[in-house]
Specification:
Number of strands: 15
Number of domains: 2
CATH superfamily of the largest domain: Acetylglutamate kinase-like
Strand content: 15-25%
Strand order of the largest sheet: 5-6-4-1-7-9-10-8
Distance between the termini: 19 Å
CATH class of the largest domain: Alpha Beta
């Protein structure tokens, strides 16, 4: 179903946004190592109002590492090393989940804690389990409160920021919109501290020009994501037909401010976006390999064709049949994600060869495409 969200006010409209994911950044939730209870209580009140309007809400909450670091007395906010971050998260997550449960409970809402690693949403079977769990929790009236499982996540198996996690959760939950509450009012055409910086109210598609506007820095120095991660989240959400908004959460009742004053940036999803399997595939953050193609194959992919071996010029990575790979053009631009019909060694042996030659090369009757169009999503 095409997104009905065209302006920020639509985020408070149950008809346009039946399911909303709200991401709360560390700098908003934690100050001086302690939770900002009054601010969070007001935000929870807004969540309760959304529920009363008939909206289902999922929360993606940062803050565990910052809270845990303060309790353990670790410097650099608990981010001095991976071990510090893991230890801080283990301690802080208890306080964080208890806080959400207490404040939501004051509005007779039940909090449900879920902790994810990257693999929970990259592996198809586990992704479907996440979808089933979130669906049941929402149907039962609970408010899922989600964070990355930082106590066990490593550099290789982590989202690294909750912006992209929120977008992937929105895909799994079949949400209509994601609201990233952060320490900025939205996307500016240059760093907001520079003279003449102008905020973009609506963005339709993440172009190279839009990416050039992003700052890699988080204004607070506390969070792990800057504007780059937020644009990546907008791309992930947009591929599934999900709108994404960025707003400043520093004020009391930040959602009401965003809606009433239209202060933020709304990323409108592109037309013809896919849901289901192709949305999951397009939003993957970790791929097992890269297939580089020539200009002819790139044109054919754009016209809806499968990827054939004769159009491949290079194979990178170690992947097995069924693994997700990226498809690049000769300049390195990402054209698509897809599931490979062959392992890396077989792909390398077939590079540049016509389908009629495959059986002789491999010694068995092969599949005609390296990546079938039904297992591919164009980016």
């Amino acid at each position: 179903m095409p997104s009905q969200i065209r302006k920020l006010a639509d985020l408070a409209n149950p008809a346009a946004t039946p399911r909303l994911v709200v991401k709360v950044g560390s700098a908003l939730l934690v100050e001086g190592g302690a939770p900002r209870r009054a601010w969070l209580s007001a935000l929870v009140g807004e969540i309760a109002e959304a529920r009363a309007r008939g909206q289902l809400v999922i929360v993606v909450s940062s803050g565990a590492i910052a809270l845990g670091a303060a309790k353990l007395g670790l410097d650099k906010g608990g981010r001095g090393s991976l071990a510090d971050a893991q230890a801080s998260a283990a301690v802080g997550q208890i306080a964080l989940s208890g806080l959400w449960a207490e404040l939501l409970g004051a509005h007779e809402l039940t909090a449900a804690q879920l902790l994810f690693t990257l693999d929970d949403l990259e592996d198809r079977r586990r992704y479907l389990n996440v979808t089933a769990t979130l669906t049941r929790l929402l149907d039962a009236g609970a408010v899922p409160v989600i964070n990355e499982n930082d106590s066990v996540a490593t550099h290789e198996i982590r989202f690294g920021d909750n912006d992209r996690l929120a977008a992937r959760v929105a895909q799994a939950a079949r949400a209509d919109a994601v609201l990233l509450l952060s320490d900025v009012d939205g996307l500016y055409d240059r760093h907001p501290s520079e003279p003449g910086a102008t905020r973009l109210a609506v963005v339709r598609g993440i172009t190279p020009e839009i990416r050039a506007m992003a700052s890699p820095l988080s204004g607070s120095g506390m969070g792990s994501g800057g504007m780059i991660s937020k644009l990546q989240a907008a791309e992930i959400a947009g591929r599934a037909g999900i709108a994404l908004a960025i707003g400043n959460g520093a004020a009391d009742r930040p959602i009401a401010r965003l809606i009433a004053q239209e202060i933020g940036t709304l990323f409108v999803p592109r037309k013809g976006a896919s849901r289901g399997r192709k949305a999951w595939l397009g939003g993957r953050l970790r791929l097992k390999g890269v297939l580089t193609v020539d200009a002819g194959a790139a044109r054919a992919l754009g016209q809806g064709s499968s990827l054939l071996a004769r159009g491949i010029t290079a194979v990178e990575g170690a992947f097995a049949r069924g693994d997700a790979v990226a498809i690049h053009d000769a300049d390195g631009a990402v054209l698509a994600h897809g599931l490979s019909e062959y392992d890396a060694g077989e792909c390398a042996a077939l590079v540049g060869h016509h389908s009629s030659e495959h059986a002789e090369i491999l010694g068995y009757a092969p599949r005609s495409a390296i990546v079938h169009r039904d297992q591919m999503v164009l980016l």
